[in-house]
Write a sequence for this structure.
């Protein structure tokens, strides 16, 4: 590619008026289970912004629902689990999944690959720690008290849960790759709540099971978390080819931490997009310069596109990245 590739986390979503229109009156989980809707939503930012990759429109709890978890995605709250995990018997309720359990995802990926042509489709899934936190807390949390209580106090139960989640996640990603996804991203959104020691002991083995388990898939593997400055060295050991970095850590520093054999992804602060254009441009050029110190750089935001972001700014940003990084 003659320029630095660029795509945005949550590019297919709430910032686009065409997305809000097509989702009107349709619940999130229902949207994720309709291949025609998934295809259209995934394609919307590719058409509008000219990004270099599409990201599958889905949700990290989709494979949990397929595994038998009674949950709902509540508007304004997020995933809510009816019966949180508390004991071995609760883990036993999480059954393994196969491609047949998520046929709608398989079908959507195949439809998208046919539509996208040379533009790669990135598949995605939630990492075991983040999925476990939803299952244990019963929904989103700011403190992860119940999650950490199990992690520290019941390590056997914790490892059984995360091992089961790693298997489910691996099956979910393998389904996407088999259907034609050209890359995958593992989101560990809440891993930043941990110390490096706790991450290495309680989380890294399970994320590594997923990422290393995809080593023979023949597609790039991206690993991303939020608030992970102290975890980047450990995340670089988990088995990904690319490590996503949030906006708090300069990419040149991140490149040293994750290892010189890894590419980096990121990491413009999503809030910068609300500033005057000259600020957006200056910050984007800074990110490009810092990313240039790594063996490879995929331009992205340091987290997802915020709902109130002006889509025209994103389109303009894509043009800037393409022009400024052309070799």
């Amino acid at each position: 590619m003659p320029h630095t590739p660029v795509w945005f986390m949550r590019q297919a979503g709430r910032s686009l008026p065409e997305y809000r229109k097509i989702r009107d009156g349709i619940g999130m989980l229902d949207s994720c289970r309709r291949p025609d809707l998934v295809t259209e939503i995934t394609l919307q930012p590719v058409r509008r912004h000219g990004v270099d990759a599409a990201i599958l429109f889905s949700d990290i709890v989709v494979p949990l629902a397929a595994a038998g978890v009674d949950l709902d995605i509540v508007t304004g709250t997020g995933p809510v689990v009816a019966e949180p995990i508390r004991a071995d018997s609760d883990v036993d309720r999480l059954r393994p999944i196969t491609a047949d359990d998520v046929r709608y995802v398989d079908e959507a990926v195949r439809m998208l690959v046919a539509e996208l042509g040379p533009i790669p489709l990135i598949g995605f899934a939630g990492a075991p720690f983040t999925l476990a936190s939803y299952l244990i807390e019963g929904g989103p949390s700011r403190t992860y008290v119940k999650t950490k209580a199990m992690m520290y106090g019941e390590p056997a139960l914790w490892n059984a849960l995360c091992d089961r989640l790693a298997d489910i996640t691996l099956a979910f990603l393998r389904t996407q790759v088999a259907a034609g996804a050209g890359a995958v991203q593992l989101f560990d959104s809440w891993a930043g709540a941990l110390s490096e020691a706790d991450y290495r002991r309680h989380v890294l083995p399970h994320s590594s099971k997923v990422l290393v388990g995809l080593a023979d898939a023949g597609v790039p593997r991206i690993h991303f978390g939020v608030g992970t400055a102290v975890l980047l060295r450990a995340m670089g050991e988990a088995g990904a080819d690319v490590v996503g970095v949030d906006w708090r850590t300069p990419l040149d520093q991140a490149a040293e931490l994750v290892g010189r054999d890894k590419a980096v992804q990121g990491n413009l602060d999503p809030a910068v997009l609300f500033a005057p254009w000259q600020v957006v441009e200056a910050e984007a050029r800074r990110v490009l310069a810092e990313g240039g110190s790594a063996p490879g750089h995929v331009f992205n935001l340091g987290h997802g596109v915020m709902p109130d972001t002006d889509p025209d700014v994103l389109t303009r940003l894509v043009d800037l990245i393409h022009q400024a990084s052309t070799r």
Summary: Strands lie at 54-55, 71-74, 78-81, 121-126, 183-188, 221-225, 242-244, 263-268, 297-301. Residues 17-324 form a domain with the TIM Barrel fold (CATH 3.20.20.210). Residues 204 and 225 are 12 Å apart (CA to CA).
